């Protein structure tokens, strides 16, 4: 999976983000991927991956669009790659979005750092304030020194397994091998 490092232009701090492959384990045992974004964690004192999820309305819109319009071109492409019939793929997508919507409606906690579970985080890319990730990066000062982070390197990580979280974003201390 894609990882990238960010280096501070004022001190020697460098942080790698992106190496976590996470899944929520939901009640009843089904799972759902964790969506994350680069964030500053005040408790790790580091740039980390943290949960990133929009409000209930965004999940409702996605489900409504799928129910009204069916698959879009990207979805059809994915169905083809997976060698899944479009009808089957659509039914899966609808079921997945219903699961996500249910999860979002029940979610109590604010987004958490995937490393330490803290909610004391600052998501770098706030779409209401910045139009690009580069702008968001430039608009954030390293709290330790006031410097600015720049994307330094891109690499590929090989997570040893899927990190499992409960529906409130707290890490479960068991790992399952990547399927
Ligand atoms: Zn710094
Ligand atoms: Zn943390």
TrEMBL record:
Top-level taxonomic group: Bacteria
Region ranges (Disordered): 157-179
Protein name as annotated: Uncharacterized protein
């Amino acid at each position: 999976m894609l990882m990238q490092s960010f280096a501070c232009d004022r001190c020697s701090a460098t942080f790698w983000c992106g190496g976590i492959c996470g899944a929520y384990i939901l009640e009843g045992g089904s799972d759902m991927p964790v969506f994350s974004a680069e964030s500053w964690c005040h408790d790790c004192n580091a740039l980390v991956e943290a949960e990133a999820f929009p409000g209930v309305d965004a999940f409702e819109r996605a489900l409504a669009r799928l129910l009204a319009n069916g698959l879009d071109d990207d979805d059809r492409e994915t169905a083809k790659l997976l060698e899944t019939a479009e009808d089957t793929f659509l039914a899966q997508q609808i079921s997945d979005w219903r699961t996500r919507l249910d999860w979002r409606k029940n979610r109590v906690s604010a987004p958490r750092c995937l490393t330490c579970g803290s909610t004391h985080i600052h998501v770098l890319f706030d779409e209401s304030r910045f139009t690009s990730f580069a702008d968001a990066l430039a608009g954030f000062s390293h709290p330790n020194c006031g410097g600015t982070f720049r994307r330094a390197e891109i690499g590929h990580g090989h997570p040893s397994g899927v990190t499992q979280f409960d529906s409130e974003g707290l890490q479960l201390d068991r790992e399952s091998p990547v399927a």
